[in-house]
Amino acid sequence: MFWSTKSWDAAGKHCYITGGSSGLGLALAKMLAAQGAHVSIVARDEQRLARALVELETVRQSKAQLFQVFSYSLLTAEASEAALKAAMERHSDVTPDAAFLCAGKSIPRFFVEYTTAELTEGMDFGYWVQAWSAWFLAKKMVAQRRTGSITFVSSTLGLMTVPGYSGYCPGKHALRGLADTLRCEFLLYGIDIHIFFPPTMFTPSYEEENKIKPALTKKIEEADGGLTAEQAAMGQAHITADFLTDSFRVSSRGSAPSNGWILDGVIDLAARVWIPLWSTLTDRRVRAHREGHYQHLQEIGFFAF
Amino acid sequence: MFWSTKSWDAAGKHCYITGGSSGLGLALAKMLAAQGAHVSIVARDEQRLARALVELETVRQSKAQLFQVFSYSLLTAEASEAALKAAMERHSDVTPDAAFLCAGKSIPRFFVEYTTAELTEGMDFGYWVQAWSAWFLAKKMVAQRRTGSITFVSSTLGLMTVPGYSGYCPGKHALRGLADTLRCEFLLYGIDIHIFFPPTMFTPSYEEENKIKPALTKKIEEADGGLTAEQAAMGQAHITADFLTDSFRVSSRGSAPSNGWILDGVIDLAARVWIPLWSTLTDRRVRAHREGHYQHLQEIGFFAF
After folding, report:
1. pTM summary value
2. 20 to 30 Å CA-CA from A179: which of A217, A295, B10, B50?
3. How many structural domains are present in chain A?
4. What residue in B sits closest to A288 (Cα-Cα)?
5. CB of A42 within 8 A of CB of A72?
6. Nearest CA in chain B to A262
7. Where are the alpha helices (DSSP H) in A35-168?
8. Any A CB within 8 A of B295 CB
């Protein structure tokens, strides 16, 4: 998924993984550890971090491999700087060879029902939790004249939108804007930028999210089969892991490089037919939900606002 | 540009315009005033607001028209709420018929050179300055069971990216993610969502921006002819105002509705050829700038970091 295994050998490399104590991040950390990489994981929950460390040991390839876990929130530039510095300490303060920014979470809700705190959190956990890490790491890499790669993790919702995710889609779109800008700008330094758009993954965050997700959003998502974090982490080359997301990648490519001019053209032809049909169907579903939604707003006392 | 004049008559309508004291916002305010609308402008600079009020008077159509200006920063939910409430006061506290969220500015700089404050400002002025207004207005509209329209103003840089804008593209991409989500979600309420992607406009903000813009960014932008705010405000239907942006709109459509299946298909075919060529040329320019850029970093003392 993140890279073509032919062109990149993880053995002996220092891989820095945020959000690496569960879900996609953990699956990726184990895969890299099994390939002989040094792995540094940053996440918040100390118990999950401890468990992740145990899991990494089960796939250890050599005594020389260094596995580290650190508890930081990553929501500010300062915390992101501290986390990266901690991970670099036992690597002679040298920047990691590859960073995978998997931290993030979503709070699905109807726009008018979000609180200001929730909307702010949406951007914090959708965008800043990765952007600050990338910013400090890039500065360090350039200052040390090091090359390497930074991989952001957006979402299918970074390429298209679904009602109920107005607090999440903006941050995931923003990540895409950042990654696209940096992909070109960082040719200046020889730093590679990737961005992964995973579809629905059945991870702990997803279960958490489902508890509060609007019923309408669940219905629209039904078509999305989802896949496990392991499948995503094992998936093919850069950047998508399923046909749905690939269609949205191609049909929202803008100025981003294609994954192959001809194949992308064919996918785009299909997308040109099925996405408008999907959109029309989705619009119809939303309109049909109108009465039920006003009832819901009545029940939660919205009109007293 | 913002709507088809055939389908919407501004006369007697209350139009709420943020960032309306200069540039695109002011041009739009005058156009709506000339069509007989009540106009409320929100911006920061009190002198510019006073001048804007004078300009509105020059196009007044009837005594009944109410022109108002308010000074608010709009960067927080609270300020955005206060601004809208102030504008609604003399309209019996009823929500505006149409809101045009034109507030915003950009700080172009290389990613590793941004300060944390500048990156935060990038998202504040690229995204939140419009998102908070939309959020509070939408809540009020739904609570009052009113319909109407909300128009966001993104940028060509909300559909594609250019090196030097890593502090701006994310916010403008985020706005696009928000508008696309709300376009569908707000079918629930009958509130119309539009988003405009203006190309380079020769406005006061642009002149400000050019003073600090990296030389490389200027070079890449040369191909973009730009247009005046008046041209943009007079331009045709929803949503773009030049062929370049239209190409990026079509080639980054994702799940957004098309402006016409056949014409968009033709534009997309052209885009499929010229955008990859443009990208390749841009990548080459960036690589060629590498040495000059390291010299620049040396000069500003970056490596002491």
Report:
1. 0.90
2. A217
3. 1
4. B188
5. yes
6. B272
7. 46-57, 77-89, 116-123, 129-143
8. no
